[in-house]
Amino acid sequence: MPLEAYLMSMAQVQAIPDGSITSTPGFEAAGVACGLKPNGALDLALVYSPQPCVGAALFTTNAFKAAPVLYDQRLLAQNATNLHGVVINSGCANACTGERGLRDTVSTAAAAASHLATAPSSFLVMSTGVIGMPMPMDRIHAGVAKAALQRTLSVDGGHAAALAIMTTDTRPKEFAVKVTTDDGEFTIAGMAKGAGMIHPNMATMLCLLTSDARITPQVARQALREGVEGSFHRITVDGDTSTNDTVLLLANGLAEMQPITSTESSAYAGFLAGLSHVLTALAKAVVHDGEGATRFIEITVSGTCSQAEAKQVAMSVARSLLVKAAIYGQDANWGRIICAVGYSGVAVEPERVRVWLGDLELFRNGEPYQVDEAHARELLAQPEITIRVDLGQGGAQATVWTCDLSHQYVDINAHYRT
Amino acid sequence: MPLEAYLMSMAQVQAIPDGSITSTPGFEAAGVACGLKPNGALDLALVYSPQPCVGAALFTTNAFKAAPVLYDQRLLAQNATNLHGVVINSGCANACTGERGLRDTVSTAAAAASHLATAPSSFLVMSTGVIGMPMPMDRIHAGVAKAALQRTLSVDGGHAAALAIMTTDTRPKEFAVKVTTDDGEFTIAGMAKGAGMIHPNMATMLCLLTSDARITPQVARQALREGVEGSFHRITVDGDTSTNDTVLLLANGLAEMQPITSTESSAYAGFLAGLSHVLTALAKAVVHDGEGATRFIEITVSGTCSQAEAKQVAMSVARSLLVKAAIYGQDANWGRIICAVGYSGVAVEPERVRVWLGDLELFRNGEPYQVDEAHARELLAQPEITIRVDLGQGGAQATVWTCDLSHQYVDINAHYRT
């Protein structure tokens, strides 16, 4: 889909070196430490656009939606065109915190609006961290005040903001592109956090995107939906869908271009191409930094009757703990790949299935095929592993990304709160 | 269901001390080493009944069915009343081995029949171990010959057989009961193996049951289906469904009783009560010995509109790596339980949900409830952990069993083949 959109649009998508959420003209950001993380690290980000923004977002499908998710959903339903920014905190998810949690979110948003003298309902909120812990509001308020200071909030604050939203992430995830189309030039930038509890829908935890494109909220939402389907919905670390997952796009319309008002336009295709580029880069970065990951695994399933079937089989392999543990151990245990294909729920004809590890064919006609163990070991020693499965039934395919299951994953998650 | 059946039947179900697969009158067994396991441990079991048996079985739902699964399915379709036993080997799964694998299974069954002078199609085969490795048939033939020797095969051979079917199991899993009903007295005995690749359907790898009850194959199959639904289909270790899962029941009809020919009879209820007792004991033993397990976790979900919904929610919690890792780390991170309830797919009203760890209430009305961390730590230090979730919507409930996720699980599965 991204590739087709790209070709259709004839848009040029160019990565911006050292890109961050403030690569987009008109956006300022700050990352501050307000004591939510016990080690004193940055833990509160503020992203601000003096120019009012259009907003569009996708949220977790979990029935227990965190307070900021409920708040953002309601706010965007009422106001998707006059937004000024977002407050993002790590260290506390503000999930399962009842009425108090909602009040805390409202108060956080109001504090940002008050400091920056914007309309009361112009700030969104995102939170990530431990579930069920009440928000230490004195620290949040102090953090928002600090972040909103003129000398802190700046067009150079993107990197600090990306650091402030990290939890078990070992590195920030940022990416920005410049998109050039016949209809004008604009920027799309993004940052994400997420190392565990990663699974569609939504496989992300938190992702914020900024753009200066001129676009309507409806069309922005459709682009987000399409872009996320090909990126965050194609990754899994541990199969857990969090209570806080949010992908939010803010577009301030500062670019000189005709507004994108229809998904049928070539300008939309260009916007989608750029957005997909950023989303895919961030999604892969999340997997690369998956909790305890030592290997990045790309799984492509082809030869299915539909893309949905291909994705289902690929996700079944990507979720298998046995496949992930074998890759961690650099063991070419392709039987486990076959096994996960077999229980995916998609009708499979075993004698038509073929499996490759990198360029090495492992399985064909229902039986093992020239398994060169030495070459397999070589491939498995690489940081990036490619698995390809062909079901031999049709012309559709899908690619998903995951990581291996290591001792470190257990370490990180056995003692997350303590 | 087992309890209702038990009450309905007024049957007495009594555990047989030191029970094994040969606790059932008329069954002989042997466990021998034939070189399939590199360390020289027992790796081939033979179970034999001179009296012809009725057979019933349930098999894996995986599309890649191992050769012995395909063979047993075909054999039972033709002959479910004149069976004499089963050959079970560990060390090699004979899965994804193509035509050769099927020929090897046929040849294994034929060897046993020939040594014991029974009809050629009277032996079933079960295999477990590495997927995709061809069967070393010279060793298998030598093993069957050794096991069939009169001095090896005996009514005391049950324990050796249970040892011979183990793979990553750390201990054998055996259980036997005596069932006394108004209609007569009979025995049901079972053994199982399975430490990883444990998930419904079927959550077992291999399970063999023997009985001297008089029962028709159709009724035996129905009892097996009902019994497994309440036992092996309620456990998960790692969410992987294997290519070889088989639960097989052989009944030689030696008990003095009226034959059980209908599922409506009280004798059937007694049989089901006894069978459920054995199956549940074995299923729990599999979880207790789950790969790397340090904790046994019982999860009961109540207050749902149907038992199926309760099971779905309970399994969502049981599968969550984050819940399992937190319990390994003795961290009362109940947020992860709530999170897994929330993405189970069952419609949940957050403010009605309640969660308990043992006797400690953790969550009520959508928010945390008197979390006594000291007491929580005490509970989590126990080898058996009880989690209870009430959705507050209806009167149905279900219980499932799982284990924690430890460093040892990763160890075992990173280097299974090597």
Task: Describe, in plain words, how this protein is organized in 3D.
The structure is a homodimer of 418-residue chains. The first copy, chain A, folds into two domains: 2-288, L-amino peptidase D-ALA esterase/amidase (4-Layer Sandwich), CATH 3.60.70.12; 296-414, Ubiquitin-like (UB roll) (Roll), CATH 3.10.20.340. Chain A has twelve helices and 16 strands. With 418 residues, chain A is α+β, with helices and mostly antiparallel strands. The first copy, chain A, has helices at 2-9, 67-78, 98-115, 137-148, 158-164, 217-229, 266-288, 307-319, 321-328, 334-342, 373-380, 407-414, and strands spanning 12-15, 28-32, 44-59, 83-89, 123-127, 173-181, 184-193, 206-211, 235-236, 246-251, 296-304, 354-357, 360-364, 367-368, 384-390, 396-403. In chain A, strand 13 (360-364) and strand 14 form a beta hairpin. Helices cover 33% and strands 25% of the residues of chain A.
Poorly predicted ranges of chain A (pLDDT <50, ≥5 residues)?
200-204
Output the CATH class name of the largest domain in chain A: Alpha Beta
Strand percentage of chain A lies at 25-35%
Structural class of chain A: alpha+beta
Rg value of chain A: 22 Å
Q: Whole-number average pLDDT of chain A? A: 90
- The SSE order of chain A reads HEEEHEHEHHEEEHEEHEHHHEEEHEEH
Shape type of chain A: globular
Q: Give the number of DSSP strands of chain A.
A: 16
Calculate the terminal CA-CA distance of chain A, rounded to whole Å. 43 Å
User: What CATH architecture of the largest domain in chain A do you see?
Assistant: 4-Layer Sandwich
What is the multimeric organization of the chains shown? Answer: homodimer
How many helical elements of chain A? Answer: 12
Could you please say which CATH topology of the largest domain in chain A applies here?
L-amino peptidase D-ALA esterase/amidase
CATH-wise, what's the superfamily of the largest domain in chain A?
L-amino peptidase D-ALA esterase/amidase
